[in-house]
Specification:
The structure holds two protein chains of two kinds.
Chain A lengths: L11 H27 L2 E3 L6 E3 L3 H8 L1 H34 L4 H9 L6 H11 L6 H8 L10 H29 L3 H9 L4 H12 L1 H17 L2 H7 L11 H11 L3 H26 L7
Helix pairs in contact in A: 1-13, 2-13, 3-7, 3-10, 5-7, 5-11, 7-10, 8-9, 10-13, 12-13
Chain B lengths: L3 E9 L5 E10 L4 E5 L6 H9 L6 E6 L2 E2 L10 E4 L11 H11 L4 H14 L4 H4 L8 H14 L4 E5 L7 H18 L2 E6 L2 H7 L2 E6 L2 E6 L1 H6 L4 H6 L6 E7 L5 E4 L4 E3 L12 E6 L5 E2 L7 E10 L3 E8 L6 E6 L9 E5 L6 E3 L9
Parallel strand pairs in B: 3-8, 3-9, 6-7, 7-8
Antiparallel strand pairs in B: 1-2, 1-4, 4-5, 9-10, 11-12, 11-14, 12-13, 14-20, 15-19, 16-17, 16-19, 17-18
Classes of the chains: A mainly alpha, B alpha+beta.
Chain lengths: 294, 361
């Protein structure tokens, strides 16, 4: 038996996907192709001449200690952003799942940060932690801690990580909560009758059952930390102090548009492109495995 | 092994809905009690209160004489079989059964022994023990769910419509297995169902619930022979009891249908109800073909249903248009329109008050 409804050939499906295909071509495929080509060129700073050099840009890149340092920094940053934001949203979701009264209010409030643009999120944290004006800096000074992320690289990194993680909590929360609510209530009740308390139920029943969602979010969060945190870094630290918060995606911008090393910057983009392709493959390959709940 | 007492149990939901009104049940040690009623009658709510999954609004629940109202489900020493089995999908069959024991800190060797014993009783093979629940058929999952209850060796089993997800044939088979298992283990059990056949076959005693109240509590045969209300009379028995409006005669020795047909009542019992409007109830299987002329009543056949083992004849008496069903054993050939001579023993007649819907006798 046919599993799908079949219609006669029609131009309408093609017409309907045309706008999306055009947008993808103009804004994604064409620039990506251009970056690929550019990564094989060395251009002078004024853009007057360029030379085709094959993989010289990549050779220079991987021999560059600064680049490898940035790579490690980015991994550190991504792991911390992903684990802090996922851990925090997991706790929030577990608590929201147990709330019965005014559950909608909690959920709506917890989802709000997702609607905030990265630049605005960055600005928010910059204000709060400003070394001279910030309310939280003031609060920390009362405990005798002198916060200045403009001078201290570790503090700058901590601030960028907190801001980036905060921004992603809402998104993770939404998925975790949905996953928890799709677990049949009777499973939790059965575990309660079997003698498992709330913490044990979470550890042995809920957490294993939401593992597909957790894995999905892990990939999404790493992609987010790698690529979507440019706005946050740009507003909070501009990669400083002394490149302490310069992550890969920020270095692409810095080297290309500030340093005007277009070939080297394009080569860095190509490396990032390879990373995102790899992550997407992992996601499609392993996440399609779904869990049957009953 | 335990007794269970429900004393004046009431349940009011936060939105003000009264789900259970003042329910009293005393369950003996080793007894199999079935809570039965239509959907929304409160039977599941009542069981969930015993399990500790719902708060009790008023009254007390005691297991083995100890009040459990405030106890967590884990501390009540009960085990429950859920309608959707509620097996942990990420654990093997063995792990599913061992979970509750592991949490209670029982040594590994004993867990192993108990699980294997339960698997033996339920005829689960060693090969099935290592599988995940999704690799099992509906009947096997049902067995695992029961196994998870058995290994805990609880003092009370709770069954929440455990057979309603199975197909008709398997349901009959599992019904027998549950009954045998309970006989073998002798554990006090409470079973919720909306299926009257399941209720009649499984329960030592039945609690018929309607709108959160007990309509009647008794053995299956008591409920069948002396239904306390119109609701119980209509609910127990299949095909359902025939009802028609009637009036007790002036001498109280017979009951008259509209249109002149009348049936004899047992002598003396209904004297005090002389001239009273009543609802007359007659079970389809109690109506039979009359062999002599003196107590026959003519029924006009409207429809004949052949079931092989039985024949159901639908028709009506004289001017009274109320539909009557007769259940005759074996294959009987009648044609629509045919007039059948029908009789019923006076002591098989049930009379109910049309206002209170209670049984009259």
């Amino acid at each position: 038996m046919l599993k799908q409804v079949h219609f006669g050939p029609s131009y309408i499906p093609y017409l309907l996907v045309t706008p999306q295909i055009l947008i993808t071509l103009v804004f994604f495929i064409w620039p990506a192709g251009h970056a690929l080509y550019q990564s094989l060129l060395i251009e002078d700073a004024f853009g007057l001449s360029s030379e085709f050099v094959w993989f010289e840009n990549f050779e220079v890149l991987f021999a560059d200690e600064h680049y490898l340092g940035t790579f490690k920094r980015t991994i550190f940053f991504s792991v911390l952003v992903a684990s802090i934001s996922m851990g925090f949203s997991l706790i929030l979701a577990a608590m929201a799942d147990r709330v019965i009264k005014a559950a909608m209010v909690y959920r709506t409030l917890l989802i709000w940060p997702y609607a905030v643009a990265p630049v605005v999120a960055g600005a928010l944290w910059v204000f709060m932690f400003d070394p001279t004006l910030g309310i939280l800096t003031y609060g920390l000074s009362m405990f005798g801690y002198d916060w200045n992320h403009k001078l201290n690289g570790n503090e700058a990194m901590a601030l960028v990580i907190i801001a980036a993680a905060w921004k992603q909590v809402a998104y993770n929360f939404l998925f975790f909560l949905a996953a928890m609510q799709s677990i049949p209530k009777s499973l939790i009740e059965a575990a309660a009758i079997d003698g498992a308390g709330p913490v044990r139920r979470f550890a042995t029943i809920v957490f294993p059952l939401i593992s597909p969602t957790t894995f999905f979010l892990l990939v999404v969060n790493i992609v987010y930390a790698f690529f979507d945190t440019f706005g946050i870094v740009h507003t909070i630290t501009q990669g400083g102090p002394a490149k302490a918060t310069e992550i890969l995606v920020y270095k692409v911008y810095n080297d290309g548009f500030v340093g005007l090393d277009l070939g080297g910057s394009a080569a860095q983009s190509v490396v990032l492109m390879a990373i995102v392709i790899a992550l997407t493959v992992i996601q499609f390959r392993y996440i399609e495995k779904t869990v049957e709940y009953s | 092994m335990a007794t269970v007492q429900l004393n004046n149990i009431g349940k009011v939901y936060p939105n003000g809905f009264k789900a259970i009104h003042d329910v009293n049940v005393e369950i003996d040690d080793g007894e199999f009690i079935v809570l039965v009623g239509p959907s929304g009658c409160g039977k599941s709510t009542l069981m969930r209160m015993v399990a500790g999954l719902e708060q009790v609004t008023s009254g007390t629940i005691s297991i083995d004489g100890q009040e459990v109202n405030k106890l967590e489900p884990a501390d009540r020493n009960i085990a429950m079989v859920f309608q959707n089995y509620a097996l942990y999908p990420h654990m093997s069959v063995y792990q599913n059964m061992a979970y509750g024991l592991k949490i209670r800190g029982i040594p590994k060797a004993e867990i192993n022994e108990r699980v294997n014993k339960a698997a033996d009783i339920l005829e689960l093979t060693a090969d099935q023990l290592v599988r995940k629940p999704r690799q099992l058929s509906g009947g096997q999952r049902q067995r695992v769910a029961m196994g998870r209850a058995i290994v805990r060796e609880p003092s009370v089993f709770l069954f929440d419509e455990p057979l309603s997800n199975l197909d008709a044939k398997l349901r009959v088979q599992m019904r027998i297995e549950i009954k045998l298992l309970q006989q073998q283990l002798g554990t006090t059990s409470i079973y919720v169902t909306h299926d009257q056949t399941e209720a009649m076959t499984l329960g030592h005693r039945l609690v018929v619930l309607n709108f959160g109240r007990i309509e009647q509590l008794g053995t299956p045969i008591e409920l069948y022979e002396k239904p306390a209300s119109l609701f119980v009379a209509g609910f127990i028995g299949s095909p359902a009891m025939n009802f028609t409006d009637a009036k007790v005669s002036a001498d109280g020795d017979s009951v008259d249908l509209i249109g002149g047909v009348s049936f004899k009542l047992p002598e003396g019992i209904y004297r005090s109800f002389a001239n009273k409007e009543v609802v007359l109830g007659m079970r389809p299987e109690d109506l039979e073909i009359a062999s002599s002329d003196d107590d026959r009543r003519d029924m006009v056949t409207r429809l004949v249903e052949q079931l092989g083992a039985d024949t159901l004849v639908h028709g009506s008496f004289g001017e009274a248009k109320a539909d009557m069903t007769i259940r005759l054993s074996g294959i009987q050939n009648f044609n629509p329109g045919e007039v059948l001579p029908v009789r019923i023993s006076p002591n098989k007649i049930h009379l109910f008050d049309p206002q209170t819907e209670k049984r009259l006798d």
